[in-house]
Write a structure and sequence with these properties.
Elements lengths: L5 H14 L24 H10 L33 E10 L6 E9 L13 E8 L8 E9 L6 E6 L7 E8 L9 E4 L17 E6 L10 H9 L4 E4 L26 H11 L3 H9 L2 E3 L8 E2 L2 E2 L2 H6 L6 H15 L15 E5 L3 E5 L16 H7 L10 H16 L4 E5 L8 E2 L2 E2 L14 H13 L5 E5 L5 E6 L18 E5 L15 H14 L3 E5 L3 E8 L3 E9 L9 E10 L18 E2 L9
Parallel strand pairs: 8-9, 9-10, 14-15, 15-18, 18-20
Antiparallel strand pairs: 1-2, 2-5, 3-4, 3-6, 6-7, 8-22, 11-12, 13-14, 16-17, 19-20, 19-21, 21-25, 22-23, 23-24
Helix pairs in contact: 3-5, 4-7
The structure holds 2-acetamido-2-deoxy-beta-D-glucopyranose (7 copies).
Length: 615
């Protein structure tokens, strides 16, 4: 197989010499972990140079090669230049982090052999990407390029397609440079240029964002993704964290047993991501629209069962300390997700901002890993509770907090109408019988465990009269909709009319993970809990705790409307869902429009439905 492709390879190689493009560098997966941290990075220049100069390019005689300096130190001596035996696009395609003139395209190309022999995994695979305006990509190709992938990055390929038109739908695919193998066609889009008038964004049609969180494989089928891809007009998919879970669980009874073990090493994380991405509804959702994501559960040096103290390292299933585990997780995440690495010098930074014309700023935060002070992980609730009010506690870290406040001010001064903040944990206060509730980990895992930090954000909005801020949250495995105001402040804020609020929070339930009201809880029982909650918490206007699902935001210059979707059954693959509630926010009003949800919901409980005496 390889012998017969040498002639082709030779021509290909000469073409390459002329271009002298570093095709390892074109694959952004090699930037994972971090191109400016030499001890953790792949040296793509070195890889490139030995492939150009070290390889024999005159005939197909014996190769005299220096070793391929992979991350694992594997030996690629005497191997052909690139794999010519064909590839399998094992996980279709995905795209993400759209800008006005560029977008990230992703695929995975595993080497195959036509005679069934085990493919030689020691050589790179070369892929071409094509992006164009028509689903017949060969007719209107806009950008085309090549990139290598290899064992070092789990055969993932992540390229930035450039020179695109703003606010435009595109089709793309990958092909093998050597054989005719081709990936499925994906659909993606760019966003409007930052100076586009709000009324012109998305060709004057409302822009639709679909928002997800907490998708645990062993807990259910990812029907919510498929429903959004097929039954909504979602332009961009947003994931607020817990895209994968580290635990093994027991999903066998619904055909969802996770492979491997509790995640610790790079291999573990890759295997888990690979398995999640076999769910056909998730595959479809990635293939049909760009995603903007943030990840997952922890504080800056630990989780509930792994941390950087001696006992913590010993406790973890692999013996890996938390920092090693975190770096493995970050690296696999950057390989598998179509996400941009915003700052090569800051290995953990995923907080970033998207200016979508003058319609909105979409500001994605990391209220988990980046620089968060110790959180509640159930066994230490009392300690965290005793420090929850401390001024210097931070959920974001000082650098990110400063950046957030500046980004909000800058968004206002550049004249953007809406500020949508996508982040992981519940912002508003959720109390039940004097207890703070409903982080997925413990009572103070959410912003309620970082109260001074929450107050600083609210003060910044009030003091600077920053209107039209909408906070999105995941994590809690239940639905919550609130006006934004200082907790318990019924002087400035009126819960009946919404007057005095400074924005809105839309928090969404899990794609599959079990309800925080009790896994599998039925609607009647969940509604009893919701009744207490909407009665107790002044800002909370709707609570729903039974259904798994997602929500969409439909945004134009005058309105931001939220539609909550409930999936009826996640124990098998299906698209049986319904709209549980709809909310309207009018630009400039900074509150949910009254009557909230038009006074009627198909699931959960509205504050207005609870007798006034309970308020
Ligand atoms: C391609 O990869 C998928 C997923 O791993 C696998 O199910 C399929 O059998 C592979 N196809 C070929 C032709 O190797
Ligand atoms: C795509 O366009 C090319 C060039 O116009 C044409 O030859 C080909 O038949 C088209 N393919 C499809 C599937 O329409
Ligand atoms: C670290 O983990 C160990 C083992 O689970 C636990 O006993 C200890 O309290 C943790 N320490 C911190 C600071 O989180
Ligand atoms: C709001 O009031 C409740 C009930 O008095 C109290 O438990 C809670 O700590 C208060 N919240 C804040 C943020 O002060
Ligand atoms: C809900 O609460 C009502 C009133 O307390 C009670 O009668 C009913 O049994 C509860 N329903 C469930 C399912 O717990
Ligand atoms: C929001 O809902 C209102 C009331 O139904 C409607 O008039 C408006 O067109 C909707 N706007 C968007 C952007 O969905
Ligand atoms: C979901 O579907 C399964 C399989 O048909 C069924 O056994 C189960 O009762 C259903 N669950 C719900 C909540 O309807």
């Amino acid at each position: 197989m390889r012998i017969s492709t040498y002639g082709y390879l030779f021509q290909f190689f000469i073409g390459l010499l002329a271009a002298r493009a570093n095709l390892f560098q074109r694959n952004l997966a090699y930037e994972s972990p971090f191109s400016e941290h030499p001890q953790l990075a792949h040296n793509t220049n070195f890889l490139h140079n030995i492939h150009l100069e070290g390889r024999q390019n005159v005939d197909a005689g014996p190769f005299k090669d220096t070793h391929y300096p992979s991350f694992y130190g594997s030996n690629l001596g005497n191997s052909p230049f690139v794999w010519g035996g064909g590839v399998n696009f094992t996980h279709a395609v995905a795209s993400g982090d759209p800008y006005d003139t560029s977008v990230i395209l992703w695929t995975r190309a595993f080497p195959t052999s036509s005679d069934g022999s085990r493919p030689d995994q020691s050589v790179p695979v070369c892929l071409k990407y094509h992006i164009g305006l028509s689903s017949n990509i060969s007719t209107q190709t806009v950008d085309i390029g090549e990139a290598y992938t290899s064992y070092d990055v789990d055969w993932t390929v992540k390229v930035e397609a450039k020179n695109l038109r703003p606010d435009t739908k595109y089709f793309y695919r990958f092909t093998d440079c050597i054989t005719t193998a081709s990936s499925p066609v994906g659909i993606t889009r760019t966003i409007a240029a930052s100076d586009t008038p709000a009324s012109k964004v998305n060709g004057g049609k409302p822009l639709t964002l679909a928002v997800f969180s907490c998708s645990q494989y062993q807990s259910g089928w990812f029907n919510a993704y498929g429903y959004a891809a097929q039954n909504t007009e979602a332009d961009i998919f947003i994931h607020l964290g817990d895209y994968i879970y580290e635990s093994l669980g027991n999903g066998a009874k619904i055909g969802r047993q996770t492979l491997g073990r509790e995640l610790a090493t790079i291999h573990d994380y890759r295997q888990r991501l690979s398995q999640y991405r076999t769910d056909q509804n998730l595959v479809l959702a990635h293939q049909n629209a760009p995603w903007i994501t943030v990840a997952d559960n922890a504080w800056k040096s630990g989780t509930a069962n792994s941390n950087d103290t001696t006992e913590g390292c010993g406790f973890s299933s692999s013996g890996a300390c938390f920092t090693d585990r975190k770096l493995a997780a970050v690296r696999a995440y950057h390989e598998w997700m179509p996400i941009r690495q915003i700052d090569a010098g800051d290995k953990l930074r995923i907080w970033r901002n998207f200016k979508i014309g003058k319609l909105l700023d979409l500001t994605m935060l990391d209220t988990r890993q980046y620089d968060r002070d110790v959180t509640d992980y159930l066994t230490n609730s009392q300690v965290v509770d005793s420090v929850a009010d401390f001024d210097d506690r931070s959920i974001m870290g000082a650098a990110q907090e400063k950046w957030l406040l500046n980004t909000l001010s800058e968004s206002k001064s550049r004249g953007a109408i809406w500020r949508i903040i996508g982040q992981q944990v519940i912002f508003s206060q959720l109390e039940q019988n004097g207890e703070r509730k409903f982080g997925s980990h413990g009572v103070d895992d959410a912003w309620d465990g970082y109260r001074a930090n929450r107050a600083r954000v609210l003060d910044h909005l009030y003091d600077n009269k920053i209107s039209n801020t909408v906070i999105l949250a995941g994590d809690s495995h239940a639905n919550w909709v609130s006006d934004l105001s200082h907790p318990n402040d019924t002087k400035t804020y009126n819960p009946q009319t919404g007057m005095g609020a400074i924005g809105v929070e839309f928090a969404g339930t899990a794609v599959t993970s079990g309800s925080s009201f009790g896994s599998g809880i039925l609607p009647d029982k969940a509604d009893n809990i919701s009744r207490v909650l909407v009665g107790t918490n002044p800002d909370l206007q709707w609570s729903e705790g039974s259904f798994r699902g997602f929500f969409t935001l439909t945004v134009d210059a005058s309105y931001l409307n939220a539609t909550y979707y409930a999936m009826r059954n996640i124990t098998y693959a299906n698209l049986d869902g319904f709209i549980s509630a709809q909310f309207i926010v009018k630009a400039g009003e900074n509150k949910l429009r009254r009557p909230v949800a038009g006074g009627v919901v198909k699931a959960g409980v509205l504050k207005s439905q609870v007798v006034a005496g309970n308020l």
